[in-house]
From TrEMBL, chain A:
Name listed for the protein in its UniProt record: 2Fe-2S iron-sulfur cluster binding domain-containing protein
Family matches, as Pfam families: Fer2_4
Organism: Micromonospora viridifaciens
Tree of life domain: Bacteria
GO molecular function terms noted in the UniProt entry: iron-sulfur cluster binding; oxidoreductase activity
Coiled coil segments of this chain: none
Alphabetic keyword roster: Oxidoreductase
InterPro entries: 2Fe-2S-bd_N, 2Fe-2S_ferredoxin-like_sf
Amino acid sequence: MTSQPHFSFDGSQIPFRPGQSVGAALTAAGVRSWRSTRRGGRPRGLFCGIGVCFDCLVVVDGRPNERACLRLAEPGMEVSTQEGTGHGDLEV
Amino acid sequence: MTSKSERIFDVLVVGAGPAGLAAATSAARAGARTAIVDAGVVPGGQYWRHPAPNERGVSAAEVAHLHHDLATYRRLVAGLAAAAQFSQHHVWTVTRDRDGFVVHVVDRTGGGERAAELRSRRLILAPGAYDRQIPFPGWDLPGVMTAGGVQALLKGHGVVAGQRVLVAGTGPFLLPVAAGLAESGASVVGVHEAGSPLAWLRELGAVIRNVGKLGEGASYARVLARRRIPVHTRSVVVSADGTDAVERVTIMRLDHRGRVVPGSERTMAVDVLAVGWGFTPQLELPLALGCATRVDVDGSLVCEVDDEQRSSVEGVFVAGEACGVGGAALATVEGEIAGTVAAGAASVAPRLRRSRAALRRFAQAMHRSHPVPAGWVDRLSDDTTVCRCEEVPFGALRSMQQDLDAHDGRSAKMLTRAGMGYCQARTCGYAVGCILGQEASRTSGFAERPVSSPLTLGALATSSPAEHDSPAS
Amino acid sequence: MPDVVVVGAGIVGAACAYYAAREGLTVTVLERGTVAGGTTSRGEGNILVSDKEPGPELNLALASRTRWLELAAEFGPDPFELEEKGGLVVATSDPGAAALTRFAEGQRAAGVETVAVSADQLHDHEPNLAPDLPGGVLYPQDMQVQPVLAAVSLLAAARSLGATVVRGEEVVAAERGPDGRVTAVRTRTGSYPTNAIVNAAGTWGGQVGERLGAPIPVLPRRGFILVTEPLPRVVRHKVYSADYVENVASDDAGLETSTVVEGTQGGTVLIGASRERVGFDDTMSVAVLRRLASLAVRLFPFLADVRLMRTYRGFRPYCPDHLPVIGPDPRIPGVFHACGHEGAGIGLAPATGRLISQMLANGQPDIDPSAFAPSRFAQVTA
């Protein structure tokens, strides 16, 4: 089997086709949400798909608030669910 | 040291959709030193969205069947060879200087975030539009997507949004979205158009003069008919339901006055609901420059331009959806007009003028046939999310009006936080305006976005007002 | 006929309307735009004593702070997000630290609570501050409020006491009787009979004064504010660099920036402050934004990776001597001014409102208003 590239998402390996965004690959893999909202803790994933709505924010390689619909998937990327602001580590 | 004047473009085009591509190609062909700046990885905007260049992944060929006028697309892209191309560059603001304009960009190539500046004597703004949205109970569940988002997944990434999809809203765009999904293997449960099937008859004149575009619509209808995908008119989505993602959608019929028919609820199981209610032009850059605006037939705030695509600001041209939502053919014509005039042409070819006029009339006809169905505000409950970013429910806006006697957009932002989140009211602006009973306006506080693309304070702090180095091609 | 017409429904106009109504006066507020649509919604909601040197403005600020606490208790619970978060003024150099210490001593003598903070103690108060700062002063009395909510609430309370608020009315002149007293306010649409007019038009107080026949020297001073993406609590107090104090008192027409950083209840961090005299030019200035970003990152290095989400700007109303104009105009009996509060309008609004209401009702002002009198300007002669 030809080696298909993968990135990790919350520890699972997600296959993708080169050229796809993180959001597209997650959708193809059946993952529909990767963020919980700040107030209600509600799940969000893709909505507008073109970088306008900022619903699809996700953590990529430790950096939060990346639009999953715009960010191209790369092999070995570490993607994780964003909780709230994504900057919880800065809280004092 | 390279003198600054050598790094000033004659014409800089913002946006590489149909209008921007046509503008940049025309300007370059006319001999202007041209640049084109676009947030996408490859040119095309939404209409001609293509996969990012890659090795053995999603190919342009596999999405070709979803496209129209690819010959035009290829010709225009080839024409960009004479221009400096800046892809994955998001414009966050535009200012003026002595020599013309300064375009402030965030370079996101390779996932980075660097601020830089590009200078040009003249600007052509072709920022396009995005799906207009109205809230309804459950619209913020994962799996509810814009029609444009579903289309972008297909065209740009070769991904089908879900297995059982219902397409709803209003406007001719619903048909190609449904057809594309169906041809890509999704089960399309149905297309639910809120408009009336007889609305076309009132616009016959404009429609007849644009028979080619009717043919386009007919071909989608054939695809759907062949696959036995029902297309319902006077049908509107009233809610989406599910626990952590959409599982069911409820549809109701509208009577001839556009009100829901009691008892007409039908619920269907889906995993994706694609909704579209027309388009909202993205106006923050023209507004930042002070361009005059007006409200178009579809209720959108658009840029005022003359027959040569000149805005009210000297040196600033606007083309495409930002002058009035009208589709790719019109955008291409306007782009060509803007490009040639910005490059110094004395006049515009009569065939372009005629084309523009006919396509404009068709666009107006389409808008009048596909209004956003009235009465949607009445279908909101107090806990329906209106501002998705800040999770502001309808109840907060309602009580602001009732208890605090505040009815304007700025107050809504300050008192409820609607429109104050990451998307800066792109998604909720239209809806909040309707809820407040206001027509779209430049002073509503929802169309202006002084920071049109977010950038880190570090990137902003370390950006120096120097020339951008190497354009990516 | 109303006893008084208040021109302007910003925070100061709202406070004037509320306190006047509380005195039993019938009040009509005229606003040409939207409530709090001017400078009130363009600042940070500051209620500060930390940035004021001993003198009349500091006295007014101390009294006004008490009024804010009273209002919050009266309208409560938590009617306008009033937070006694305190202010931390941080020096960025050793000479700056020495100057700050001296300044704070003077303020303490004038009744301001101050707490000296050494270099090692800075991070107990603000863990995210840069590591190499020489020290600062904590001002526990500094507070934060949501200014639009406050203005709206004050007007709602005024209305419940019988006041009327009319939007979309622009004042064009004052009508006067044979004895020179005000008899009415004329607007673009009509006329409002009254014997008293309060010019609470903020940055447009100069223009309104002119139209009333009582010009006062109020000029605009532009300021930008940066707003970050939403964050958890990362900054506990209002944090300023010590040079903020010097900026306010300066007359420089050029750009002045100093650092002001604070969190908000919505999660965003606000970053200021810039001051420019550019008339009412509200076009974007990337140079100012760049400078503010750079100063903020210097004070809080973590901000380098935090995104700018939006920005807004406004025009502070500014008098040549940096004091507000509060009191009766000697040229036109019946005209009172209550504007020119520069960047301190929110904080000073309740005390201003109370002073005006006392003047209107012929009561005893509980603060000496002489330093704010319109007659102090050479051009304002009876």
